Amino acid sequence: MTPRAHSVSIPVHSIRHRAPSLRALPFGHSAEGTPVRLLTDRQREHLATIGTPMKVPPRTTLYHEGDTATNVYIVQDGCLKSFRELASGRRHVTSFLFAGDVFGLAEHGKYCNTLRTITRSALYLFAADTLTALFKRDPEIEFQFLCKLTHELRESQRQSIIVARRDASGRLAMFFDMISREGHYGPLQSATIKMPMSRVDIASFVGLSPEAVSRASRDLKARGLVAFPTRDSVKILDRKRFDELVSAT
Amino acid sequence: MTPRAHSVSIPVHSIRHRAPSLRALPFGHSAEGTPVRLLTDRQREHLATIGTPMKVPPRTTLYHEGDTATNVYIVQDGCLKSFRELASGRRHVTSFLFAGDVFGLAEHGKYCNTLRTITRSALYLFAADTLTALFKRDPEIEFQFLCKLTHELRESQRQSIIVARRDASGRLAMFFDMISREGHYGPLQSATIKMPMSRVDIASFVGLSPEAVSRASRDLKARGLVAFPTRDSVKILDRKRFDELVSAT
DNA sequence: CGGTTGGTTGAGCTGTATCAAAAGATGTGG
DNA sequence: CCACATCTTTTGATACAGCTCAACCAACCG
Fold it and tell me: pLDDT averaged over chain A?
């Protein structure tokens, strides 16, 4: 059942995989905390017509903190980081972005984070004023973005809680738990989590030194909670004790 | 030139002070980073018709984490805290809310923070579905909420940066700086900041023990950066060195 | 193969959590 | 109005966790 090239309209399941999409917990009730695809196919099709798809190589800076904000992006695939340069030269990673995330919206005339790809990424690009014009015409779509922002706010509050923890291994465990829920729709597939970012990035996300992250990783492994099959993945070995540690403070 | 009481319509400056209002940095450019009143008088009047004004005494819990989310609130006046109970019994304050702030929106069927007044507060209450229904009819108002959420997201990211700092006095300085910008519109009026929350609340917001907050306060005072005229206010004495400390990491 | 970047390991030091207790506020009832 | 009980904040002493600096190891790339 290979998709046939029709003359006018694009086949639906092709849209599914090619049009932009937003991942978040819905506003109303949902099957206990699993993120869903917010936009309807029609809305995604609509967005696809006003946006431009693009592929970006790894380690590419999309914009700098302070640049005039003109574009909004939706992540189709890949992994990016959003960070801020601090006066000391230190960097603070505010968030990692995966498929279904938006960025470029959270500003006021100027971007307030720097944005950089980690892996090769597929993005959808929107001119900010085109998007806001669409919002005025289509409040339903605007509402989806509102839900997405709400979700991001929750995630950010979660980050504060992570960083506020005292014990390094606990922070790291919360971090693994956090990214295990990102980048895909529906419930968790497997115990193995992809983790494309560097240890240094993880460190500046959870508020530890890279050395502390390294030691905490060793510690979690020694306690039999997790394993690191490759450099960029974690596997939860003992889910029960792992979850206990995550919610331990 | 005193305003005359016309027969039908309410005098404008009365609306100004009685109708709900949202404080945030606007989406477009603004006079360098000063928060403004987002809603137009007409929009505020509109919101006033679908919302209910209410006064709440101090130390009153409005809702608990996990409760079914039915209402959205806008703060008219006063100060509240939003916090989460952690497994250890510890509390983490996610934010302090002042005039022009929204809460109750950042959820998904259930509230995910507990909300409690600190001082006596004047609020506007909205039924969540009435508000979302309004959004579908009036995308302009919806857009203002979107801006507000964006602003809250920025603030939350800022909190993460505060908590990630290593030095206690630096965190405290960042905290003073943060709340000095909240609760009022336009540029800063004075060097004296109102600070109605307890030291314990401050501690659990910036991620320190209450003792550490106490010591850091003493330290800032000893260094001649700030003074504490009363228990619930701070005065910036040396703005230059204070700002240096705030942006020191 | 050197060069570069990213990650791990080790030793010492600083700063904050923790525990215990005193001192200040705040509120209540006689 | 004062005395008492309760709660919040401050102060002091100690222990420990993570930062820092420095060296070492591994992977990647021309």
Answer: 89
